[in-house]
Amino acid sequence: SGKWIVEFNDLPRWGFNRSVDRSGGLFHIKESGIYDVHAYLSALAQTADAEHILEIHILDASGKTIEEHEIAGEIAGYVGKWVRMIGSFQWYFTAGQKFKVVYNNKDKDQIYVWEARTTVTQLSKGLDENNAV
Fold it and tell me: What are the residue ranges spanned by the domains of the chain?
C-alpha cells in the first residue's frame, strides 16, 4: 500500500452535533466554533479507497509537526465507523490550526497533499482534485 498525505488548512465551519460529540467524533476549535472533520474524512476514505489510517499530525504555522498521534484502524466509507475509530482522539485547536492525516491506499503508491475547502459541498467536490506530488 502506498502512503498518502492529506493536509487540511481551512476547515469547514460546521454546526454543533451533540450526538456526534458524545461519541467524541468532533474536533473542537477555540474561539471560532466547532469543526466537524470525521464526516469529511469518511468521504475521503470512500473516494480514495483508503485502507488504514496511520497517523494524525498537528502542525504549526510553518507546517512542522508539533504533535503526532498514531492510529490503527480500518477506514470505512461512512461516518459511523469513523466516530467509533477516532472517538478517543480530540484536540483543541486555535483558529486556523493545520493538521494532516496519513493513510494507506489499497491500490496506489503515490503521496498526495490536499488543502481543505471552506464548505462541505466544496469538500465533496474537491475529493477528485488531488494532485500527485
Answer: 2-132
